[in-house]
Specification:
binds zinc ion, about 45% helix, Nucleotidyltransferase, domain 5, 5-stranded mixed beta sheet, about 20% strand, 10 strands, alpha/beta, about 350 residues, 2 domains, 11 helices, single chain, binds 5'-O-[(R)-(carboxyoxy)(hydroxy)phosphoryl]adenosine
Length: about 350
């Protein structure tokens, strides 16, 4: 018998997680299986695209079966397939897309290609059942740093973007320099808790007055130069202090710009999305400052901050509501804009 709830299968393979989720009625997770390749890529200090594609291919069918078993559904119960079509690594994206198209064709299930960044924002719809656009969103991930105005489901205007490194990328590079390994974001988050955030005063880069753009490469280089000069002097680096000081410098700018945008645009909500939204100091700093200004901040569960199939299923569900279906000509768009 056909399941009475609307069932979406979300497929995410844009980087180094193979993730398949089953989501009911757009916002209820029945399963969200994430097979991470971190243990493989950490040996190389970062994601190796060819290796990522190969592992997606090896894993994807097993992950699909696991997700359906956990959700206690059969493939014939699936009403819609949502798949990430960009931005991301082209070879990695293609594995998800080819799989989605094959199932869609064989089982005659509607198909929708999803923008990965819209997926990240949509993770919040899962945690906050009452949340609806419009709202201001802060996107902080390994590939993006943006302040956007979300006008409607899947419809966003970009107010600001990074001009060089994404914030997650800066975290990962700094982590490597202070010997923490990949992925560095969660490691910096952890060790910074025991560090002194005033130990080193790294550059806060605000760019032009009223600009919502970001630049993190100067701060990152500042950390690099500091570490090198300390080493040359024969001094030991206190990794926890460097980590805490670095993240305070970048997070202060992010928080101030997001709040500034919310106040100027008269928005009383900031919806945070992307891997760096899991960061505990960002949560503390933004919550603290937003409260004093009467702004409510929304955060996805930590598991839904980083790449996962559930956020893709949710984004696809709302595209379906607007009749925005894809067909079998769906392709990978590695540089897809927000
Ligand atoms: O959103 P995401 O999973 O992938 C992209 O779409 O890019 O973000 C991954 C990024 C990585 O750079 C990772 O180091 C960072 O998010 N990240 C964190 C934390 N957890 C993940 N950065 C800081 N603190 C964290 N707790
Ligand atoms: Zn992502």
């Amino acid at each position: 018998m056909k399941n009475k709830r609307h069932i979406t299968m979300g497929i995410e393979t844009s980087c180094d997680e193979t993730s398949i989720a089953i989501v009911a009625d757009g916002r209820d997770i029945l399963s969200n299986v994430i097979s991470s390749q971190i243990d493989i890529h950490k040996n190389f200090g970062g994601v190796v695209p060819e290796i990522a594609s190969r592992h997606h291919l090896e894993n994807i069918n097993g992950v699909i079966n696991e997700a359906m078993a956990e959700a206690e559904i059969e493939i014939d119960d699936v009403d819609l397939i949502g798949v990430t079509c960009g931005p991301g690594l082209v070879g990695a994206l293609l594995i998800g897309i080819a799989t989605a198209k094959a199932i869609s064709f064989a089982k005659d299930i509607p198909l929708i290609g999803v923008n990965h960044m819209h997926g990240h924002v949509s993770a919040n719809y899962i945690n906050y059942k009452e949340l609806e656009p419009p709202f201001l969103s802060l996107i902080v991930s390994g590939g993006h740093t943006n302040i956007v105005m979300v006008n409607d489901y899947g419809d966003m205007d970009v107010l600001g973007s990074t001009r060089d490194d994404a914030v997650g990328e800066a975290y990962d590079k700094v982590a490597r320099v202070i010997g923490l390994g990949y992925p560095g974001g969660p490691k910096i988050d952890e060790i910074a808790k025991a560090g002194n955030k005033e130990a080193v005063s790294f550059k806060r880069v605000y760019l032009e007055k009223d600009s919502y753009d970001f630049s993190f490469s100067g701060t990152k280089t500042g950390v690099l130069n500091f570490v090198n000069s300390e080493k040359q002097k024969g001094n030991d680096i206190i990794a926890a202090d460097v980590a805490a000081s670095f993240q305070e410098a970048v997070l202060e700018v992010i928080v101030n710009k997001a709040l500034d945008a919310a106040l100027k645009l008269k928005q009383d909500k900031i919806v945070v999305a992307g891997g760096v939204a899991a960061n505990s100091r960002l949560r503390e700093l933004l919550n603290e400052k937003a409260t004093t200004k009467g702004i409510k901040v929304y955060w996805p569960d930590k598991l839904l901050c980083t790449d996962n199939g559930a956020m893709i299923a949710t984004a696809a569900y709302y595209k379906m509501k607007k009749g925005e279906f894809s067909d079998l000509s769906l392709d990978a768009y590695p540089g897809l804009d927000i």
